């Protein structure tokens, strides 16, 4: 897993995406792939944000709905929705998002560390005239 | 100091594995060899195999820097050298095998402790001395150990021998098996150029000649006109490591000032005139028992690279075959340039097997060397070519030619392969049955043919990969030979161990797991089951006391049983004991025989009145049961008083592949492990009972079971809410029983259980009754239930009420 502290201290690239009306980002090194929403197998008794399991090259990988995971209202997904494959310590997790927007270069001056230790959001990118980006920690997002 | 060379850490796994295998193998051969009436009758191939095994262990232990193991293996090798060459005059078979087993166990124990940093290396010197003593005994007492210390025979020089008589001292290579035979050939050749007057030892046909030559060397006294020719003959002698002209002065020098001399002689090439002034020279002496100093030296030099610039070493090339001997003889000289002499010296001192590492000053002025030393030096220089020529031959003879028919592979790699193959199978079916092909049927003849071919191949591939993990149970069985043998020796019960179906192949992980349980069971059988010969005679039993281990398949289970024809168990006695220990949970009269025998494997139960060396504390069988249950197996005990007992282990064929009954609930596919399914039936209206509190029960053959609606329990939406419309499945797992309600049965199939991703640990899926998931042939997935928590979690109390 990529070290988010590195991003906050030295800057780097982030993948930005929309969930609900908000913009979020992952450090680019945390992301291993972006794919179309797959067919999932429901896990009985699991909370709604765990959509289920997906066969990824012989492994059963959990798929989560990022909106619900972040406590945002459920929404309709369309053809622009996609799944971000995040890698956490060699384990994979698929996160369904409304749409992926861009890959942006972030300089250390643009990003502010979140004061919450080990929170789901590790830092905020605030730039004039552009929407705010909350940079997420995938290991916190994916761990139930 | 670390136990083994740090740079060898990467090799540790391989070393542990290989040496472990070799030792297992050794035990097997020892068992076989022990069957021979006497040592002279042991199969030659077995002796050769033992010899080779010890040699390999010696070599690899030395490479790891494990001096103690290496020396012990060496001692065992020496022992078998005597046996192989039949140079013994008297033997003691039982002493020999006891010692061999002890050594083999010691080596095994050491292997186990190796990874434990806290445990120091074991000192095997006691064992080694025992082996040496036995070896001396074998060779006959005439060969007193003192004679082997390299003490020189005193009668080399006769006062009245002619002045033109030369004395040559020959040293044979250690690997030379019969120097006396070589010597005879050499004398014959020498006859052409010289007159051999006398040799020491005098008689080459004497049995002790070999030992003497090896210890002190061979002295040849001869008269000749052509010294060059003689020396040529000597140099060309097979296995001759070195020869030198021996003078009375040298004898004196060797006997009096032998240790002092070693330091004074600095081989040529250590100090060169062009060396810069600030170049340091270190003289490293390796301990004598270090088997491969050159290998150590390479490691040391690599480490030195961090602090210093190593310019040159003497000997120069560590890969050279002669390097070992050169280092052993003169030590290792390292020439280096450094800023940090402290670090270098510390490093040198910490090197494994390094006895001393001293800086050497360049001799300021050439000392006037004593006469003997000069001569010695010359002799050494002279012998160099002879040695060089000899070395490659020696190495070639030493290198063990081992046929490699087995390959060891990491289990993870196999698992990965298995994953990949199942992926291929899934992909294959999704390609050949792709919806895109619909409507093209008439034009797909060749495609269909090829895809059938592909399917055949992938099926075969899957079979082969599955079989890779399978090993015969004999590996676990063989170890029991040792257990029974040892117990026979101490308990004097003469039990024979018989194998049936030891070729049965099971998953490797099962064989690994079986080791401990089998040992406990077999120990129990011999210790508790089999009676002493006197008791057997008193009971009128004429058949030999036998423990039978058998293995086989039974409906997707491996069945391994251990049967003895001993005393059997007394159900009444066990019940009484269980009562005494307060283990009864219901009235005595209600216990069936099977339940009673199950007490035997419960914790804290031992029928043996006395605790013996092998069993009786009542701990073993409980652990056995737990181990077996951990892998989904069962342990069943049955017994007939006076006839014997049988312990049967039943384990699912593969730990990861399970038989399941797949059902549908709404859109979801759920699989119930077939092992816990007892019966599937359609429920009739009149058999459904709902109590006032809302609990639902199903009445089935005079019994009442709680009904678990899987849809409700697993929070899956389904349209089938009427139990009479769905399918009822009566399940039992351990003590829990219930009837599950599902929409419909899809099929029964074998699936590979995949645990849930650790990322989902927070959901406590296991507690919710889910064991994992499985990817089916068509790429879809099914969820596998964990019956124990599904039934037990909810039914626990209700089940007992119902």
Kindly state the percentage of residues in helix of chain A: 10-25%
Number of helices of chain B: 23
Gross morphology of chain A is globular
Radius of gyration of chain A: 15 Å
CATH fold topology of the largest domain in chain B: Heat Shock Protein 90
Class computed from helices, strands and strand pairing of chain B:
alpha+beta
> Hey, roughly how much beta strand do the residues of chain B contain?
15-25%
- Mean of the pLDDT scores of chain B? 74
Distance between the termini of chain B: 67 Å
Mind telling me which CATH architecture of chain A this is? Beta Barrel
Report how far apart the termini of chain A are.
Answer: 18 Å
Descriptive notes:
The complex is a heterodimer of chains A (144) and B (802). Chain A has 144 residues and is mostly beta strands. Chain A has a single domain, classed as OB fold (Dihydrolipoamide Acetyltransferase, E2P) (Beta Barrel). In chain A, 11% of the residues lie in helices and 47% in strands. The longest helix of chain A has 7 residues, at 4-10. The model of chain A has no long low-confidence stretch (mean pLDDT 83). With 802 residues, chain B is α+β, with helices and mostly antiparallel strands. Chain B has five domains: 6-141, Four Helix Bundle (Hemerythrin (Met), subunit A); 148-258, 2-Layer Sandwich (Alpha-Beta Plaits); 410-433 and 457-463, no CATH class; 471-652, Heat Shock Protein 90 (2-Layer Sandwich), CATH 3.30.565; 657-801, OB fold (Dihydrolipoamide Acetyltransferase, E2P) (Beta Barrel), CATH 2.40.50. In chain B, 43% of the residues lie in helices and 21% in strands. In chain B, β22 and β23 form a beta hairpin. In chain B, α4 runs antiparallel to α5 and α17 (508-529) packs antiparallel against α21. Classes of the chains: A mainly beta (144), B alpha+beta (802). The interface between A and B is medium-sized, with 23 and 32 residues.
């Amino acid at each position: 897993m990529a070290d988010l502290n590195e991003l906050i201290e030295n800057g780097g690239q982030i993948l930005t995406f929309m969930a609900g009306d908000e913009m979020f980002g992952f450090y680019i090194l945390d992301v291993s792939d972006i794919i179309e929403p797959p067919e999932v197998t429901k896990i009985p008794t699991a909370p709604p944000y765990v959509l289920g399991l997906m066969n990824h090259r012989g492994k059963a990988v959990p798929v989560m709905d990022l909106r619900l995971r972040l406590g945002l209202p459920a929404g309709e997904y369309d053809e622009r929705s996609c799944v971000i494959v995040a890698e956490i310590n060699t384990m994979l997790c698929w996160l369904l998002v409304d749409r992926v927007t861009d890959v942006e270069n972030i300089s250390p001056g643009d990003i502010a560390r979140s004061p919450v230790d080990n929170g789901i959001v590790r830092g905020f990118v605030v730039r004039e005239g552009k929407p705010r980006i909350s940079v997420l920690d995938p290991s916190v997002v994916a761990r139930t | 100091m670390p136990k083994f060379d740090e740079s060898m850490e990467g090799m540790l796994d391989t070393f542990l594995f290989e040496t472990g295998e070799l030792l297992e193998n050794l035990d097997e051969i020892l068992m076989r060899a022990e069957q021979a009436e006497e040592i002279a009758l042991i199969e030659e191939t077995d002796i050769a195999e033992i010899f080779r095994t010890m040699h390999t262990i010696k070599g690899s232990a030395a490479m790891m820097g494990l001096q103690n193991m290496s020396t012990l293996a060496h001692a065992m090798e020496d022992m078998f050298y005597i046996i192989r060459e039949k140079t013994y005059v008297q033997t003691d078979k039982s002493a020999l095998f006891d010692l061999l087993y002890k050594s083999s166990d010691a080596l095994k124990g050491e292997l186990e402790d190796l990874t434990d940093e806290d445990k120091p290396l074991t000192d095997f010197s006691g064992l080694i001395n025992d082996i040496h003593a036995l070896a001396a005994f074998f060779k006959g007492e005439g060969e007193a150990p003192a004679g082997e210390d390299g003490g020189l025979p005193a009668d080399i020089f006769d006062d009245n021998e002619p002045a033109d008589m030369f004395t040559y001292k020959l040293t044979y290579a250690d690997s030379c098996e019969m120097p006396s035979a070589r010597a005879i050939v050499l004398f014959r050749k020498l006859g052409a150029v010289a007159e051999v007057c006398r040799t020491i030892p005098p008689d080459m046909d004497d049995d002790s000649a070999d030992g003497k030559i090896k210890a002190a060397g061979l002295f040849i006294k001869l008269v000749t006109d052509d010294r060059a020719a003689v020396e040529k003959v000597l140099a060309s002698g097979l296995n001759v490591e070195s020869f030198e002209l021996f003078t009375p002065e040298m004898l004196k020098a060797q006997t009096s000032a032998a240790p002092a001399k070693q330091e004074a002689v600095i081989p040529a090439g250590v100090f060169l005139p062009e060396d810069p002034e600030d170049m340091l020279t270190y003289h490293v002496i390796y301990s004598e028992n270090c088997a491969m100093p050159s290998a150590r030296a390479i490691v040391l030099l690599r480490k030195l690279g961090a602090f210093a610039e190593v310019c040159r070493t003497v000997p120069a090339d560590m890969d050279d075959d002669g390097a070992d001997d050169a280092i052993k003889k003169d030590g290792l000289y390292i020439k280096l340039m450094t800023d940090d002499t402290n670090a270098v010296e510390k490093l040198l001192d910490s090197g494994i097997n390094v006895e001393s590492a001293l800086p050497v000053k360049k001799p300021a002025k050439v000392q006037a060397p004593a006469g003997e030393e000069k001569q010695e030096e010359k002799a050494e220089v002279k012998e160099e070519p002879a040695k060089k020529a000899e070395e490659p031959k020696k190495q070639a003879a030493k290198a063990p030619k081992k046929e490699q028919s087995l390959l060891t592979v990491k289990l993870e790699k196999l698992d990965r392969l298995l994953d990949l193959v199942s992926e291929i199978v899934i992909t294959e079916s999704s390609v050949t049955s792709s919806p895109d092909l619909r409507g093209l049927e008439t034009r797909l003849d060749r495609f269909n043919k090829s895809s059938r071919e592909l399917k055949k191949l992938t099926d075969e591939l899957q079979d082969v990969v599955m079989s890779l993990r399978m090993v015969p149970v004999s590996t676990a069985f063989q170890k029991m030979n040792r257990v029974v043998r040892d117990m026979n020796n101490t308990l004097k019960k003469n039990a024979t161990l018989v194998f049936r179906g030891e070729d049965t192949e099971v998953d490797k992980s099962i064989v690994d797991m079986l080791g401990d349980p089998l040992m406990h069971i077999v120990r129990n059988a011999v210790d508790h089951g089999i009676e002493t010969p006197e008791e057997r005679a008193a009971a009128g039993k004429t058949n030999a006391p036998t423990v039978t281990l058998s293995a086989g398949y039974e409906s997707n289970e491996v069945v391994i049983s251990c049967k003895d024809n001993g005393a059997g168990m007394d159900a009444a006695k066990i019940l009484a004991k269980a009562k005494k220990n307060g283990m009864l949970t219901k009235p005595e009269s209600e216990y069936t025989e099977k339940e009673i025998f199950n007490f035997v494997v419960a914790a804290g139960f031992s029928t043996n009145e006395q605790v013996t060396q092998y069993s009786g504390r009542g701990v073993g069988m409980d652990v056995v049961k737990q181990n077996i249950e951990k892998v989904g197996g069962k342990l069943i005990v049955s017994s007939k008083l006076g006839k014997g007992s049988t312990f049967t282990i039943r384990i699912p064929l593969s730990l990861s592949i399970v038989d399941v009954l797949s059902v549908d609930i709404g859109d979801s596919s759920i699989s119930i492990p077939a092992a816990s399914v007892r019966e599937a039936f359609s429920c009739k209206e009149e058999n459904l009972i709902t109590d006032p509190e809302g609990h639902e029960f199903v009445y089935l053959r005079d019994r009442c079971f709680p009904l678990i609606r899987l849809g409700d329990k697993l929070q899956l939406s389904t349209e089938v809410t009427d139990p009479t419309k769905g399918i009822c499945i009566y399940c039992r797992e351990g003590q829990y029983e219930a009837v599950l309600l599902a929409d419909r049965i899809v099929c029964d199939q074998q699936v590979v259980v995949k645990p849930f991703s650790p990322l989902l640990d927070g959901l406590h899926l296991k507690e919710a009754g889910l064991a994992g998931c499985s990817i089916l042939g068509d790429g879809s997935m099914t969820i596998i239930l964990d019956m124990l928590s599904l039934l037990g979690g909810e039914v626990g109390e209700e089940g007992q009420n119902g």
